[in-house]
Write a structure and sequence with these properties.
Length: about 900
């Protein structure tokens, strides 16, 4: 083959990225070629295989190199250009494998050879590879310069390469300043991509997608990314297709459709894995981690980000690595690892400055401020947030982020008010600026959470009317957002469907776009009656016809009432969902709403679940006309948590009232019970002082005995009060040891019997009944004696006519049961539930001395043992106390 013929074949076949159809023709030529004609076919196919099938490309390169080594028929300049083309193939493979320095060497050598041979297309391709290397190394200035060199080299020779270079430059400009980028490049690509080669069209659509995404036009972003993805696949740009797939996932994340996002992330990973390209795999992993972060799976996202950053280590200076730092910092904040988050955002700040990426710089500064705030460094957080605000002057979204951080700092810390503050508080000062920034954004809907924060700030300074109005705006904003998101998701899913079916031919793309528009219009009509809002609302929403029959409801309604939509369709809403006692109130609300056709006041009633259980709700009713049909909309909010909180507050107030009553009882008891022994002490001491000299020894001893008994009585009462205090405070010592029950019970009976002999004139006896071989039990002896000395003493004290007190001990399975039975004055049935309250005394014991603390101490001692106590009593017939204690404890 003559050199000039060979060169002509090279010019035609070295498209930057050929379509699948063109590659099929090249493959057919390779199969048919033999001898000298096989060499150009080998190189042409290897060039198109460099991303489609890297291993095959390298094998073809080796075969072509072997042919070149023995070729004697080619001119030197042709040989040099072909060898330079093989260098570019090897260099791109090295780039894909993360070997950036080696790739740069290959690109430099190839560029030199192409320049020497005046091969403008070869020079353009070498500059393209150098641009990819520079981008991977984070050298934004060099990357832009190489793209400009691509366009200059290919100008007049290949419009496809020129368009690709300019579109890549435009996309890079988007991330620096989207408004400026659109002003600069929109006119250049205003003609669209219908007449473009799909390889170039993929890059132009990528620019359109990036500009739409940065402008929060997420449905448009999905549409363009989808087209770019299809065109990249059709032209063998696998690396670009992976990036487009993950960018589609990011766009779906922006619509809060995280499951669709995961599907696209998985598609990107599935494409990247067979090739094992670390940089491409790293991008797919970090974007997947971003989706997991949106799904609040922070630990899983953290693990994927670490894996992605290991893979992207050779490209640590790239924008993608910087994005990974941003995601990791945000995940660390959610994982409460604030020091690690701060370190990530500090690294991100360095990379953003090097990349001249304003968006990432704003993320880095706001992230540092948030981390410093969580680390209780408010002054440092304030300084960073102010720098973030200054950096975001041309980016309203980032301004809002910085202003919200500043408001949060001033909310959580009392700091010097900002200069020029006219608002009622520093948080309101910054939040008002955030609202002003939002107002500058075209077609921007204020998010509900921002309005809620502003409402809370007004509430904090007492502006309740404004706070209430803002809260209502927040609810409305959420409803608008939910409606728009649902509609956008439906449209976006249609775009995804088109993308999957799209073919490389632009005419077919136009047909699919037209079909998409028709389907989108039909979908918009089908979703006319809040259907999009229904499935995304936090409240249960039920739609009825004019007769009150249910014709639709959302997922939250199904969860709240435990019924499927199919079960509810056609049912009367009042009979099905509301407790019978509220039918009248709900019916009246509906009638009032129908009469005035305005929103009715909210009504709090009880709703019915499928199982018959009731739960409290807040109900509001509105009406609307859909497709000329009257419908009622019921907005139902489960207020179980609110009611629970109210009950807890009521219980707390009741407890405070109970404590006040206990205080009153204690004062009453103390004034009564301490007065008697104090009077005894006073009278006895007066007798000794006045008549002591005339008393004999026995009389004086009697006076001293009265004083001693009174002092002991006061001491016992104070010890009871202290015991109650220690048990209430949870500091009681409890040290169980193994004890033989029989000797211990006999000791207690003997102790109480001695007290009977000293203090009671009537005849009393204690009948202890228990088996002779009774087992051991793990008890705290001190508390055990408190229990049964008190119960037995009470049984005697409240049996003024004397008699026998039964003390019976019986073993049960793992437990021991004690009965103390008397036949005394008993307790009225209505007073039994209060017997164990501190300072409470039954009405039948009013004439008998006592503090009302004994049984309360007994109950606490039983609970310390992990046991239980119960009482049965009848007035005038006697009382039975039953105590059940476990046989075994964890011994001290």
């Amino acid at each position: 083959m003559r050199p000039e013929v060979l060169y002509a074949v090279k010019d035609r076949d070295f498209e930057v990225f050929a379509t699948d159809a063109a590659v099929a023709m090249l493959e057919a030529s390779l199969v048919a070629a033999s001898g000298p004609e096989r060499l150009p076919a080998l190189i042409a196919v290897a060039w198109q295989m460099r991303q489609r099938d890297m291993q095959r490309a390298l094998a073809l390169v080796d075969e072509a190199q072997a042919c070149l080594n023995v070729c004697t028929t080619l001119a030197d300049n042709v040989l040099r250009c072909l060898e330079a083309r093989l260098m570019l193939i090897r260099g791109e493979v090295m780039l894909l494998c993360g070997e950036l320095e080696a790739s740069a060497v290959q690109a430099g050598k190839a560029l030199s050879d192409f320049a020497a041979c005046f091969d403008t297309i070869g020079r353009a391709d070498a500059h393209w590879l150098q641009h990819l290397v520079a981008a991977g190394q984070g050298n934004a200035v060099l990357a832009n310069a190489q793209l400009q060199a691509v366009a200059a080299a290919a100008q007049g020779s290949d419009p496809v390469r020129v368009t690709m270079a300019l579109a890549a430059l435009a996309a890079r400009d988007v991330y620096h300043d989207v408004c400026a980028a659109r002003q600069k490049w929109d006119a250049r690509f205003a003609g669209g991509t219908a007449d473009m080669h799909p390889a170039a069209a993929s890059w132009v659509n990528g620019f359109f997608a990036a500009a739409a995404g940065e402008s929060s036009e997420h449905v448009e972003s999905i549409r363009y990314h989808g087209i770019s993805y299809t065109q990249a696949l059709a032209t063998g740009q696998i690396r670009r297709a992976v990036i487009a797939a993950t960018n589609l996932g990011v766009a779906f994340n922006n619509l809060n459709d995280h499951h669709a996002a995961l599907e696209w992330m998985q598609r990107g990973l599935d494409m990247a894995r067979p090739h094992a390209w670390p940089g491409t795999m790293g991008v797919a992993l970090l974007q997947t981690a971003g989706t997991l972060r949106e799904l609040k799976l922070f630990d899983a996202a953290h693990a994927l980000l670490l894996e992605a950053m290991v893979l992207m280590a050779p490209m640590a200076a790239s924008r993608n690595f910087a994005v990974a730092l941003r995601y990791l910092g945000e995940v660390e904040l959610k994982r409460l690892q604030y020091d690690d988050a701060l370190a990530c955002f500090q690294r991100l700040e360095q990379r953003a400055n090097a990349l001249k990426a304003t968006d990432l710089l704003c993320n880095a500064l706001s992230g540092q401020a948030q981390a410093l705030l969580e680390l209780e460094q408010p002054q440092s957080a304030l300084a960073k947030a102010q720098v973030a605000l200054a950096a975001a002057q041309s980016h309203a979204v980032h301004q809002i982020d910085a202003l919200r951080v500043l408001a949060d700092i001033h909310t959580r810390h009392l700091l010097v008010p900002p200069p020029g503050m006219r608002a009622a508080s520093a948080p309101l000062h910054y939040l008002q600026q955030a609202l002003d920034a939002a107002a500058t954004m075209q077609n921007y809907t204020l998010p509900g959470d921002l309005l809620e924060v502003v409402a809370q700030a007004h509430a904090n300074v007492g502006d309740t009317a404004i706070a209430f109005a803002l809260a209502k705006q927040a609810i409305a904003a959420r409803e608008v957002t939910h409606s728009r998101e649902a509609s956008n998701r439906a449209v976006a899913m249609q775009v995804t469907h088109e993308t999957q079916r799209a073919q490389a031919e632009e005419a077919h793309q136009r047909q699919l776009a037209q079909a998409h528009a028709e389907r989108a219009d039909a979908l918009e009509q089908a979703n006319a009656a809040y259907h999009a809002v229904l499935e995304n609302a936090q409240d249960a929403i039920v739609l009825t016809d004019s007769h009150g029959r249910i014709n639709n409801w959302n997922r939250q309604a199904a969860l709240s009432f435990g019924r499927t939509l199919e079960e509810a369709l056609g049912q009367d809403i009042i009979a099905l969902l509301f407790a019978a006692r509220f039918h009248g109130a709900v019916g009246a609300t509906i009638m009032r709403q129908r009469a005035v056709e305005e929103d009715t006041p909210r009504l709090e009633v009880m709703a019915l679940r499928r199982d018959g259980s009731e739960f409290p709700i807040e109900l509001s009713v509105t009406s609307t006309t859909v497709r000329s049909q009257f419908e009622c909309s019921f907005f139902i909010r489960d207020i179980s948590q609110r009611v629970k909180a109210a009950l807890e507050i009521a219980a707390s107030l009741a407890r405070q009232q109970e404590l006040a009553e206990l205080k009153s009882r204690f004062v009453s008891m103390a004034s009564h019970e301490f007065r008697t022994p104090l009077a005894t002490i006073l009278s006895s001491s007066d007798l000794l002082r006045v008549h002591g000299a005339r008393m004999d020894e026995e009389q004086r001893a009697g006076c001293f005995e009265f004083i001693s008994q009174a002092v002991h009585r006061m001491k016992d009462m104070l010890e009871d009060v202290l015991l109650i205090g220690t048990t209430d405070a949870g500091v009681s010592q409890f040290k169980p040891l193994a004890h033989d029950l029989r000797p211990l019970c006999e000791s207690i009976v003997a102790e109480v019997t001695r007290g009977i002999a000293q203090n009671f004139e009537t005849l009393h006896a204690i009948d202890l009944r228990m088996a002779d071989d009774f087992c051991q039990a793990d008890l705290d002896e001190r508390w055990f004696r408190h229990i049964f000395c008190n119960l037995l003493s009470n049984a005697v004290k409240y049996s003024p006519d004397g008699g026998v007190v039964l003390f019976e001990v019986m073993a049960r399975a793992g437990e021991v049961e004690f009965l103390v039975v008397d036949h005394g004055i008993g307790v009225p049935a209505q007073e039994i539930p209060r017997l164990f309250e501190p300072f409470f005394r039954a009405s039948t014991s009013a004439s008998i001395s006592g503090t009302g603390l004994g049984l309360s101490i007994v109950q606490r001692a039983v609970e310390l043992h992990g046991g239980r106590i119960s009482v049965e009593s009848e007035r005038g017939q006697g009382t039975t106390f039953k105590v059940v204690l476990p046989l075994h404890q964890v011994l001290a």
